[in-house]
Amino acid sequence: MPDQTPPAAPTAAALPATVRHIVLRRRPVGVPTPDCFALVETPMPVLDDGQMLVRMRVGSVDPAIRGFLDDRPSYLPPVAIDAPVTGMSLGEVVASRHADWPVGTLVRVLGTWSDHYVITPDALGLERVTPQPGVPLRAYMGALGPVGLTAWVGLVAVGQARPGDTVLVSAAAGATGSTVVQLARAMGCRVVGLAGGADKAALVQRLGADAAIDHRVAPDALATALDAAAPQGIDVYFDNVGGPLLDLVLPRMREGGRIALCGMIAQYNDADHPHGVTQLWQLVVKRLTLRGFLTYDHADRLAEAQAMLDDLHGRGQLVPLENVHRGFESLPGAFIALMQGQTTGKTLVEI
Ligand SMILES: NC(=O)c1ccc[n+]([C@@H]2O[C@H](COP(=O)([O-])OP(=O)(O)OC[C@H]3O[C@@H](n4cnc5c(N)ncnc54)[C@H](OP(=O)(O)O)[C@@H]3O)[C@@H](O)[C@H]2O)c1
């Protein structure tokens, strides 16, 4: 008869002697390269009262990290040279000196690219994660986690999308974009996606978009394709990229339209030379709202968002799109691929 005994909860005795970190060796110029990062080891820390030790299980690879690698102010401080890279991850408490956070608790938190890290309950973004049976843990770092919440906040809370609206999404084959396409479709919107290349555009169409446009074509062809895909104009633009696409879209917004500005990845690799948007007068002409947002500013709406994501996932109307790398040391390579525009869906590292 097979052994039915549950595996013993990990204890400090089972911990490795050292912690591995991915540190920033030098600041990237343009797209990051492998020599910007290094793998270093430090002794396993000893916990103080009130602290927990978390073992990273799923590392999140995000474009926002590119901004933290530059030495300029943002909504988080820059990563110091030779310090571990800042990043979100999903992990498991493997040692604890806090009664409310026992060993075995699964958490999502903004930490560092370290295979183990020490946190306290006030750690930025700390949340408990309770996976549903049969759903892989990594989904809670993607479409059923921060990615899905970002898509929902931008589309519903900021973009105020309604059934019948025409919703345009940039980087539509990416993590956030692919989730927005599926959410908007489920809400009864007409969905148009912008993606780089014919293969990504075909993928966006398979996700349920009514139209998908390759944005890496000549400007005239792109404008013609957008006019054909949204002949009545655009009610909601979920913008992940900024740059020249924003200029292209502004005159094509409908009166009273909403632009949910999620990110500006078009300028992350070259933040010293941002694209100068020339069409802002359209905000007046069309009485548009352009609003930037950070997902976790909308904490009061996240339970509602999570319920909708879980519900749609349960009905098969939200299928997480992911590209999954394996092993802690693959974090820099996964990040470089993301910043080169090579990826589709959420970029994750399973450890
Ligand atoms: N506000 C928030 O709280 C929040 C939270 C999470 C993410 N974000 C932002 O959301 C955006 C998407 O993040 P993600 O994690 O979902 O990444 P992602 O879409 O999975 O990956 C990035 C994609 O951006 C596209 N891209 C890169 N450079 C571009 C350019 N110059 N012009 C047009 N498209 C370009 C590429 O797709 P193509 O090949 O299709 O061009 C690339 O694959 C980022 O700007 C990120 O900072 C914001």
Question: Could you give a quick summary of the protein structure above?
Answer:
With 351 residues, this protein is an alpha/beta fold. It contains nine helices and 15 strands. Bound molecules: NADP nicotinamide-adenine-dinucleotide phosphate.
Question: Could you walk me through the main structural features you see in this protein, from its secondary elements to its overall organization?
Answer:
With 351 residues, the protein is α/β, with parallel strands linked by helices. Helix content is 24%, strand content 26%. The strands form three sheets. Strands 3, 4, 5, 6, 7, 14 and 15 form a seven-stranded mixed beta sheet that branches. The chain has a six-stranded parallel beta sheet with strand order 10-9-8-11-12-13, with helices on both faces. The protein has a two-stranded antiparallel sheet with strand order 1-2. Helix 2 packs across helix 8 (302-314). The longest helix is centred in the middle third of the chain and has 13 residues, at 146-158. The two termini are 31 Å apart. The protein binds NADP nicotinamide-adenine-dinucleotide phosphate. Residues 62-64, 150, 171, 173-177, 195-196, 200, 215, 240-241, 243, 245, 262-266, 293-295, 338, 341, 343 line the site of NADP nicotinamide-adenine-dinucleotide phosphate.
